[in-house]
Amino acid sequence: MTCTVVEWLAVFTRPETVQIVLDSWQYQRQHTGLKLYGYVILENHLHFIAQAPELDQCVASFKSYTARRIIDLLQQQKAERLLQRLHFAKAAHKQDRDYQFWQEGVHAEMILNEAMMRQKLDYIHANPVKRGYVNLAQHWRYSSAANYEGLAGLMAIDVW
């Protein structure tokens, strides 16, 4: 799955915003049966491979919770320019909020077999390398690539 910040705003350059995402996944792993097989968080979007009994509800809850917490954090930090963009990006018909954080929808793709799983894990882990941020996927701090190399990642995952 892919979740993208509205207007591709670079919000995940702040360790505190990334931690909100990691904490949300950790909570869901402990309380909702979410299995998180892999992830990568870049400055304006994230990819993750997951499974859950009610995955659609997990994803909706994840997006809602992380959006609220990140917006609260940006307000505390007085990140006015980002907040202005998030306010501007809010759809005119949405009356229940002042800001829109995530783009609508989730770009999901069903993984059908072991070969496809390996290909998707390799793809998401290679994102920071392709962008020139690191030379090796396991060196990207906000990724599960290290977990698959037997190293400690920022959070535990369900290794495939």
From TrEMBL:
Residues 7-127 form the Transposase IS200-like domain. InterPro entries: RAYT_transposase, Transposase_17, Transposase_17_sf. This is Transposase. It comes from Methylomonas aurea.
